[in-house]
Each structure stands twice: as structure tokens, then as C-alpha cells.
């Protein structure tokens, strides 16, 4: 895959980012029916964009993925969302967004990144260095709680 450009999201891209989030969310089976029944769960708060907490991956001018990274608390950043256009899966976009999130988290003084993972994405997160550290209860049921130590391999 040729390199994607990763940059901060612009507020006027919010609708396109939510559309991408919807497409990615229904592309795999675990939450598909839940998201189709409750499309209101697809919501990217504008404040996250305004506070520069959303990073966008684009290729040839098209948005192909994004990550929302919450501000660190007590040395831990939270990956609030990672979505890649299904046509761009397995082309390095998700990994590039994770690496970018790691770089930003380190720059903000974080020692680790926490994510409540979609069960369909656990293998991806493990490949990126995350370890399962527990379970969280979400609106649609249990989900793995995962952690990436930033002083580790990345």
C-alpha cells in the first residue's frame, strides 16, 4: 500500500467520517444488526474534531480511515474509535493510524493506550501490540478491553 497522508480532521468532514464509521461498523457481523437497528450510535462529537482529537487517513484526496484519540488521563490515552473504509482493509491504513496515535500519545506524555475493542478487531489490535486486559460492558454487550504499552515494541 502506498503511504496514506494522516492529518487532523476538519469539522466540515464530520458527515463523511460518520458515513465511513457506519460502513465499517456494518461490514462485520458482531454489531451489524445492532447498528442497523440503532443508527444513532454512529456519532462523532464535533468537539473531538474541534479539539484536534480526530486524525484522518487520506489517499489520493479521499478519506480512507480515521481515529479518535481522547486526551490522556493519568498517563493513559484512550482510543475512542478506529474506522477504516472496508475497501481499504488490510492495506496498512489501520496500522498507520495506530502508529500515529502512538506517536501523539507519547508526545502528550502517555505510557499506554487503552481501547474497548470490537470483538471482530481483536486480532488486528493484537497484531499492533495490544494485549487483552479484561472485558467491558458496552451498549451491545461485552467487548474486550485492550492495552498497548507504549514503551514496548512501538
Describe the structure.
Helix content is 31%, strand content 34%. With 154 residues, the chain is α+β, with helices and mostly antiparallel strands. It has a single domain, classed as Gcn5-related N-acetyltransferase (GNAT) (Aminopeptidase, 3-Layer(aba) Sandwich). A 7-stranded mixed β-sheet has the order 1-2-3-4-5-7-6. Strand 3 and strand 4 form a beta hairpin. The longest helix is centred in the middle third of the chain and has 15 residues, at 93-107. The protein is globular and about 35 Å long.
CATH superfamily: Gcn5-related N-acetyltransferase (GNAT)
Low-pLDDT windows of residues: none
Distance between the termini: 20 Å
Per CATH, what is the topology? Aminopeptidase
Kindly state the number of beta strands: 7
Roughly what is the average pLDDT, rounded to an integer?
93
Report the CATH architecture. Answer: 3-Layer(aba) Sandwich
Side by side, the strands of the main sheet go 1-2-3-4-5-7-6
Amino acid at each position: 500500500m502506498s503511504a496514506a497522508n494522516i492529518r487532523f480532521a476538519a469539522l466540515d468532514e464530520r458527515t463523511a467520517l460518520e458515513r465511513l464509521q457506519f460502513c465499517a461498523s456494518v461490514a462485520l457481523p458482531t454489531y451489524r444488526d445492532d447498528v442497523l437497528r440503532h443508527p444513532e450510535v454512529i456519532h462523532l462529537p464535533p468537539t473531538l474534531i474541534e479539539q484536534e482529537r480526530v486524525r484522518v487517513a487520506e489517499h489520493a484526496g479521499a478519506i480512507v480511515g480515521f481515529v479518535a484519540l481522547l486526551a490522556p488521563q493519568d498517563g493513559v490515552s484512550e482510543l475512542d474509535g478506529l474506522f477504516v473504509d472496508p475497501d481499504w482493509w488490510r492495506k496498512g491504513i489501520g496500522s498507520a493510524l495506530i502508529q500515529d496515535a502512538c506517536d501523539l500519545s507519547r508526545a502528550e506524555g502517555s505510557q499506554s493506550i487503552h481501547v474497548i475493542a470490537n470483538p471482530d478487531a481483536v486480532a488486528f489490535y493484537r497484531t499492533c501490540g495490544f494485549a487483552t486486559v479484561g472485558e467491558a460492558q458496552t451498549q451491545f454487550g461485552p467487548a474486550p478491553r485492550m492495552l498497548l504499552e507504549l514503551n514496548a515494541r512501538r
